[in-house]
Amino acid sequence: MRTIKLASLQKIMATTIYQKRLIQKRKEQGLCLKCGKPLDREGAYCISCRKYINGQQMVLRRWYQEHGICPRCGKNGLFGDEKACLECNAKAYEASMRSRKNLGKEYYNQQHNEWARNEYHRCVSEGVCTRCGKRNADSGYKTCGICRANARKYKREKYGKPDRGERYKQGLCYFCGNPIKEGYKVCERHYQMNIEKARSQRAGEAREKLLKEGILY
Q1: Which of 30, 33, 77, 147 could share a disulfide with 131, CB 3.0–4.6 Å?
Q2: String of b and e for 53-88 (b: at least 16 CB within 10 Å)?
Q3: Helices (H) and strands (E) in the chain, counts
Q4: Tell me: the pLDDT tens digits for 92-133?
Q5: Cα separation of 168 and 181, whole Å?
Q6: CA–CA distance, 142 with 148 (Å, rounded to integer)
Q7: pLDDT in tens, 22-32
Q8: DSSP string, 167-194
Q9: Per residue in 159-206, pLDDT tens?
Q10: What's the whole-model pTM score?
């Protein structure tokens, strides 16, 4: 029995040494480490193998999460809605701080701003809310109704101003929250702005269009 285990161990060690030599040889020749074909992308694997590996890793991570195991280390348990264990989160935070320190704050901010711009344009082109990036944007807006409601609530709490629907009842301008002009729902500034817009060429063309369509009498 002991002789069989020893032979099995030697076989495993020989296989491991062979695999290491094969990988090193492929790396020196610029070949894919998995299939041995010429590389068609930057990295260690070709496009086909990289796609396959990513798919396998995604399935494995999903399995770990469903069973309450950290998908990064595959050892520790998950707590609550966390996507990684406390140990892996701590290591990721330390690595991020080292990266920021080495690259510099300005470089990191520039990279983040570039990512944010690209993400914003992607959401706009796909018709997705630019704030949450999940729900579809409402017609005529770049955000969803939930995110706009949360933004209005945040501003009310931060600046202490009532909602637009409550402003007139408190004698405040519907647009800015300043005291209203007597007999109107807006302040003097927004009253003058509305007068100018009503007398503009664009407003006149819109009225003529509505008259022709029979909507305005």
Answers
A1: 147
A2: eeeeeeeebeebeeeebbbbeeeeebeeeeebbeeb
A3: 8, 0
A4: 989 888 888 887 778 888 888 999 999 999 999 999 999 998
A5: 11
A6: 10
A7: 888 888 888 88
A8: HGGGTB-TTT-SBPPTTSSS-HHHHHHH
A9: 766 677 677 778 888 888 888 888 888 899 999 999 998 888 888 888
A10: 0.41
Residue of 114, 116, 113 whose CA lies nearest to 130: 116
Place of tokens 């520790």: 76
For the four alpha carbons of 118, 123, 126 and 132, in that order, the dihedral sign comes to: positive
Amino acid at 18: Y
Cβ 178 vs Cβ 172: under 8 Å? yes
Return the structure tokens found at 180: 């209203």
Q: Which two tokens stand for residue 5?
A: 């285990």
CB atoms within 10 A of CB 192: 12
